[in-house]
TrEMBL record:
PANTHER family: ECF RNA POLYMERASE SIGMA FACTOR SIGD, RNA POLYMERASE ECF-TYPE SIGMA FACTO. Pfam families: Sigma70_r2, Sigma70_r4_2. Keywords: DNA-binding, Sigma factor, Transcription, Transcription regulation. GO terms for biological process: DNA-templated transcription initiation. Residues 30-87 form the RNA polymerase sigma-70 region domain. Belongs to the sigma-70 factor family. ECF subfamily. GO terms for molecular function: DNA binding; sigma factor activity. This is Sigma-70 family RNA polymerase sigma factor. InterPro entries: RNA_pol_sigma-70-like (IPR039425), RNA_pol_sigma-70_dom (IPR014284), RNA_pol_sigma70_r2 (IPR007627), RNA_pol_sigma70_r4_t2 (IPR013249), RNA_pol_sigma_r2 (IPR013325), RNA_pol_sigma_r3/r4-like (IPR013324), WH-like_DNA-bd_sf (IPR036388). It comes from the Bacteria.
Length: 174
């Protein structure tokens, strides 16, 4: 394969086609041995990714070094990337364990009091719009409908309220 690589680097198109064909035959069993049965179908994807990497990085090949070492380094990195992308990350639904764990809201109580104190410095409707959209996750359309106002008016109210709060807590009273 090294001689084909050297010839392809000199511009020999037939050698390059032969090299890619040989690489495909070499890489398929290489990846098949490393993949679990569940991911065996990914071998061809890895072969294609490796061939693309060889193609795009072929000018970095040091002609004085063994070709297979260079190829295997690329293939190894493609395999590691694949494993990272498809790593099994077990998850446990914590909702199922909720009765086991006690809920400690004491730390959040102080945060809620601080937020309410800050929102108390802006008009009630503005504070409620900010609370609904920025804390509770409601859309501007939903919050505007609850207050019987247009979305544009709600956006302006939220913007002015947040601007006022930022100015107040950045050191300048507005």
């Amino acid at each position: 394969m090294r001689s084909l690589m050297l010839a392809s680097l000199e511009g020999d198109g037939a050698a390059y086609r032969a090299l890619l064909s040989d690489l495909g035959r070499h890489l398929r069993p290489y990846f098949a041995r490393r993949l679990s049965a569940a991911h065996a179908s990914h071998a061809e994807d890895l072969v294609q990714e490796t061939l693309l990497a060889v193609h795009s990085r072929r000018m970095t090949y040091d002609r004085t070094r063994p070709f297979t070492a260079w190829l295997h380094a690329i293939a190894h990195h493609k395999f590691v990337d694949h494993v990272r992308r498809h790593a099994i990350r077990p998850t446990v639904q914590l909702d199922d364990d909720a009765p086991v764990f006690a809920s400690d809201d004491s730390a959040h109580a102080a945060d809620r009091r601080d937020v309410e104190a800050v929102l108390g410095t802006v008009p009630d409707r503005t504070a409620d719009l900010i609370r609904q959209t920025r804390i509770e996750g409601a859309s501007i359309a939903e919050a505007a409908a609850r207050h019987g106002m247009t979305e544009t008016a709600a956006k302006v109210s939220i913007h002015r309220g947040l601007k006022s709060l930022m100015a107040r807590f950045a050191g300048g009273e507005k």
